[in-house]
Design brief:
Spore Coat Polysaccharide Biosynthesis Protein SpsA, Chain A; seven-stranded mixed beta sheet; 7 strands
Length: 219
């Protein structure tokens, strides 16, 4: 399956962490979380291609290092970026796509493969909510897409309702790694409970923001 990751310019990422991280640290965190996800996707059996939607100048080195392609965004905004990718892929004859955010460093390869497998079996819409059950952390749709993209605080319920209104089957999956996105200071604290080799944890541990036994920093 084709995986689409919309990427905000790193310098503007994670504004809600400003009390803990300065501009350069937030940019570095956004980058390392994206690279964690791309590393995971490279090991997935069911991922055919990864498409980053954003600014080519900012993403060129990341895309080259991980073998991704870049779609230059025409308009700012998550839903617009995803909609642009959906149209572009449908024009290529692609039958489905999986949308993932760049801030899910704990996402596991088996979770991604399970999500894709479930969607390929049933079509329609396959969705993973965030930990609170409000937002959308993963969304697989068949193309051309028959529902609008409605990313935002209440997007999980909005996407499910839109799919059902369009007569599409909806599957909601409980995948803890994908559900764990990093937006708030408490998210960083919660990472302390995870035993993971994700570079994101090493990055945060190296800066004293979390305490992790045997942190292996790549920075």
């Amino acid at each position: 399956m084709q995986v689409v990751i919309p990427v905000k310019p790193f310098i503007y990422a994670k504004q809600r962490l400003a009390q803990l991280l300065d501009d350069s640290e937030r940019a570095a965190l956004a980058r390392v979380m994206l690279e964690d996800l791309l590393g995971t996707l490279s090991t997935c059996q069911r991922v055919e291609r990864v498409l980053l939607v954003g600014q080519p100048a900012a993403l060129g080195d990341v895309a080259e290092r991980h073998g991704c392609e870049i779609l230059a965004e025409k308009e700012r905004g998550l839903s617009r970026a995803v909609g642009q990718a959906a149209v572009s892929l449908a024009q290529e004859g692609v039958s489905s796509m999986l949308i993932l955010p760049g801030d899910v460093p704990l996402a596991a390869a088996d979770e991604v493969d399970t999500l894709i497998e479930q969607h390929e079996l049933g079509g329609g819409m396959t969705i993973v909510p965030d930990r609170e059950g409000f937002g959308t952390n993963a969304l697989a749709v068949s193309l051309p897409c028959r529902v609008p993209f409605l990313f935002g605080r209440e997007s999980f319920a909005a996407h499910c309702a839109a799919a059902r209104e369009a007569g599409l089957a909806v599957r909601a999956l409980d995948l803890p790694g994908i559900s764990f996105d990093v937006d708030l200071p408490e998210d960083l604290r919660d990472l302390m409970s995870y035993d993971s080799e994700a570079r994101t944890l090493a990055f945060l541990a190296a800066r004293g923001l979390i305490t992790r036994p045997q942190a292996q920093s790549a920075w």
